[in-house]
Amino acid sequence: MRGPRLGQACVARALALLALGTAVPAPGGSRAALVGGDDAPLLLAAATAPGVTIAGSEPAPPAPAVATDEEQGGLLRGIRWELAPIRYWGQIAIDYRTSGSDGGGQGSQQTVSVSINGASYIWQPWFAQLRGGLGLVLARSEATDGGGTRNLGLTGSLGLSLLPISRFPSNFYLDVSDSRADGEFTGVDYRTVRFGFDQSYTPPDSSARYRLAFDQSTIRVDDAATGARGASSMASSDTVRTLRATYSRSFERQSIDAEASISTNGRDDPLGRARSQSDLVTVRHSYQPADALSIESLASLTRFDNDLPTRSGRQNLGLRTLQLSSFATWRPLPGDAWHSADHPLYLTANVRAMVLSSDNLGTQSETRSLFAGIGLNYQLLRTVRLIANTSLARFSAHSGPSTSSLTQSFGLSYAGDPIALGRFVYTHSASVSASLAKTTGADAGSRHGTNASLNHGLSRTWALGPASSFALSLGQGLSLGHGTQRSLGGGLTHSVAASWTRSTGGASRSLARVSATDSRALGAQGVDYQMVNVQVSQQQSLSRVSYWSGNLTWQGTRRRDPEEDPELLGFAPRGWTTSYGADLSYVHQRAFGVQGLRYTALLNANSFDVDRRDQGFVDAPLSNTTLAFDQRLEYRIGRLDIRLSARWARVDGKDSWVVFLRIVRAFGRF
User: Fold this and answer.
1) pTM score, two decimals?
2) CB-based burial, 174-192: b 16+ in 10 Å, e otherwise
């Protein structure tokens, strides 16, 4: 037991040295010894006592005599500091920008920023790793109306990793950044403070894994710096906090994954402080008691609360959902009594319970639903399947009687083999089903219905050459239904899709695709729906040093439901609803024939919803850019980077522009 005790004593003395922060003279009366070359990382470590070795290292040579206990102290006997050269890196940047925006006037800004970073480890790399940095930002802003400001800011970062390759690694971080030192124009200057930790744990001799993580991001607009350029006259801040815990474990025939997260957001609003919170708890369980049987279960709890300021007070909105579900599948395997290669069979069973509650402007409501069902799928013939289902559903509202229903259905589906019609391929399928439902409660009674559908399509591919092809597909579907409480009705659907592709190896790749769907209701009830989708992408190499690429996605939809009441919905029926996303880029790596001079042009436009900070997304931006056009000239000479860029963008519905010059000199060992 002498070896382990001696090792523990050495660790204790090393940690004591770190806590005391006292340098002990090395043998011979010299100060702490510098070891390692210029490329070695910083080592701040306590040397082990004589005769003690660390697993995986060579035995240390006999140490020379050290100072006596009276000189070093009994706890520090045999311990000395060792300091290696620091691995450091950094940069000095000079920025000049002139910018303007709608209703905000014009202005210019000069910025000088300096940053230095370093990395190290304590005792051994596997024990603790350190990293940190410090920066200074000096900015001067001038407006066209003669006003101006001077601003001085500090940036920095700090990180600590404890036992990074162990079963219980810990990571702590703190980062303070300034948008003026990032080299990107966002239309408004702001500072970001982000800190958090990440702790994991894996028990010995176990497949379980635990993890706990916290992340906080605060964005604060610099009113002094932006006011001169008219971007803002009111300081604002936005803080997102997330706490996330996860657990996973695998057993012999089952596994479990659990996750719980809490996200809060507090942000400035012209009328006051807005707050929101999103909570999520999910537990997934997979179980396979037999090779032919598998069960997947899920339990989830979600909650979203939004507290918004209004001119008449505060407005509270809340939504909570609790859901429990389980899905089982049984498929006989070879060797089982029910297995047949020509007539495969599988059974399904599922149970789902849900509670949905909401609080909208003080009006509370709650609904509860329960569903259970059993399904059978049996291959009668190679092209014919038998489908049967039985389900039980129960629904109850916060106010009002509950309703229960028992539904049984039986159907046949047919999928024919593809038929060659010349150079075209014809596909067809059909299905027929009958159902019987019995309802108790407010809507008591029995209902029955029959449904039938028929689908067929035609497709062909043309080779337009050795590198390109064109494909066309047409489809048509007819559905009919008749029931106790409805007359004969259904729907007629037509679809068309055309695509063109071209590829010449790495030099060029092209794709264009257009698809359209039209669904019309037959009878008094039903919904009309139309959709058009367009996708275009291109990658083209123009020369050995230049290329361009682009992507475009556009979609339009229209929906009409005669049963919807416009007054109840709060809006009139709308026509087409469109969305799009496009990006186009051009790169020339030797602009104007100058070696190392790179020119880049970027165009981005979109109308899609983006992740927002009020929904708990820590990495979401402060503002939303829907259209931007950038041009950049970049030149590198050794460690000197020069960049000249011009940008026009639409940020939060307002147009803004900027011309930006940045000169950066890097130093240190990266």
Assistant:
1) 0.74
2) ebbbbbbbebebbbbbbbb
